[in-house]
Amino acid sequence: MLTNLKLQRNIVLASAGMLLIANVLLALKLYNQEIITRNLPITEAELVISKNYINDAALKIRADQIISLLFSMKKENSSVSMDHLLRQVDNEFYEEFKIKIKKLAEDIELRDYRYVFGDIQGYEYDNYNWTVKISGYLDTYLSDKRIANQPKQYLLSFTNKSGIINLKSFEEVKDEPKN
């Protein structure tokens, strides 16, 4: 009987010790784990996405997401930014866009410059063709020195497949020649 109680006590102590070690290891793993925080856009406007129409609020959110991803690319994060950006592209236009964005990423890595598109002046929406034209100023930085500040316009076109809005194209709007 006494040996039976000692055996039970030893089993309980061994189990408690193993549980303590497992908890310490789990705590260390969680403590050393990288934490990723994503800020999602919050809007008080109603998002309307139908088969033939996307309202201004929905187009603005998607355009801002794409602009943010594209113009946050720099030498240190170019491959990660490129991957995140390519996830936003419609499959039908993926390969064409991938070639363009890969060329931009390689150029940024090689020459160590970055762009910041800020001070947005306005948005023009075409709700039935799912496009947004954004006007603002493009700052160009070489290392950490700003070397240019130019007014620019970009046209973003989207696809709408069952309410999922993906990027179709992104292009700079060139000034039309004046006659």
Note the main attributes of this structure.
179 residues, alpha+beta, 41% helix, 4-stranded antiparallel β-sheet, elongated, 4 helices, 29% strand
Q: Helix count, per DSSP? A: 4
Structural class: alpha+beta
DSSP strand count: 4
Radius of gyration: 26 Å
**Span of the ends, CA to CA:** 108 Å
Helix amount: 40-55%
Query: How are helices and strands ordered from N to C?
Result: HHHHEEEE
The largest pleated sheet is described as:
4 strands, antiparallel
In one word, what is the shape? Answer: elongated
Look at the structure and give the mean pLDDT: 87
| Beta-strand residue fraction | 25-35%
Strand line-up in the sheet with most strands: 1-2-3-4
Low-pLDDT runs: none
Explain what the structure shows.
The chain has 179 residues and is of the alpha+beta class. The longest helix is centred in the first third of the chain and has 31 residues, at 2-32. A hairpin with a 2-residue loop joins strand 3 (145-161) and strand 4. Helix 3 (78-86) packs antiparallel against helix 4. 13% of the residues are buried. The model has no long low-confidence stretch (mean pLDDT 87). It has helices at residues 2-32, 56-70, 78-86, 94-111, and strands at 113-126, 131-142, 145-161, 164-172. The chain has a four-stranded antiparallel β-sheet, covered by helices on one side. The protein is built from four helices and four strands. The chain starts with a helix and ends in a 7-residue tail after the last strand. 41% of the residues lie in helices and 29% in strands.
